[in-house]
Sequence to fold (269 residues):
Amino acid sequence: MADTVRAAVVQLLADEDSARNVARAGELVEAAAAAGASLIVLPEKWNWWGPASRTRDGAEGLDGPALTAARTWARDLGVALVAGSILEAIGDGTRAHNTSLLIAPDGRDIAIYRKVHLFDVVVGGHEYRESDAVQPGDALASGEVAGLRVGLSVCYDLRFPELYRSLVAAGATAFAVPANFTKPTGAAHWEVLLRARAIEDQCFVLAAGQWGDHATGEGAWGHSMIVDPWGTVLAQVEEGEGFAAADLDLAAQAVLRASLPALSHRRLP
Fold:
């Protein structure tokens, strides 16, 4: 197993034009692969972003065009890919799961995760009701790629440290966090939470966000970043569309976990 793995996080702004979004995502995945990344993470709902009332328009099955394209990119480029998340159609299509896939370099699905924690909050005077269109999942997921066990999560999950500790208990050495953090919460909490999850779980964190202003009036914070197990931000896309890449030092992670064995010191009554 290699001592280092080059990973990348992709940042973009999706709208209701699925074909355009998928094409743009493909361009950025290809650019990240050309920069040497063997593990690439896309943002939350990278293929479609629109109001809950039009969920039926954006939702698709796991065999739909977005994930079919993602599997093709993984296979053609020889990279592992966290296909951010998509709205996975269920029932009559008026509701969906917010679903993330980990795809192997040969195009196989390794792990499927349906977002557990739904964003029903009021921020900056705007009410968000993710549960109006999304049905929560009920299980965690992780998979082995590129010398890492990648634990899957989506956006609001970031505020629930017990989810990530459960992933570590299952062997995770890295977390994928596709997201669309709001501008107010992103400015205040995004980096703090990402670094906290990295430090407390001694894991790499690969956080890919949307950035900019959606047509729905919601602003996305962006600032996609890669954080190491010490809490150091290795790379970041501060603004605009693009990607950030960094080398993940797996040997240094192993040394840290051995020399500061906090994970094995955990005691609860």
Notes: The domain at 4-261 is CATH 3.60.110.10 (Nitrilase/N-carbamoyl-D-aminoacid amidohydrolase).
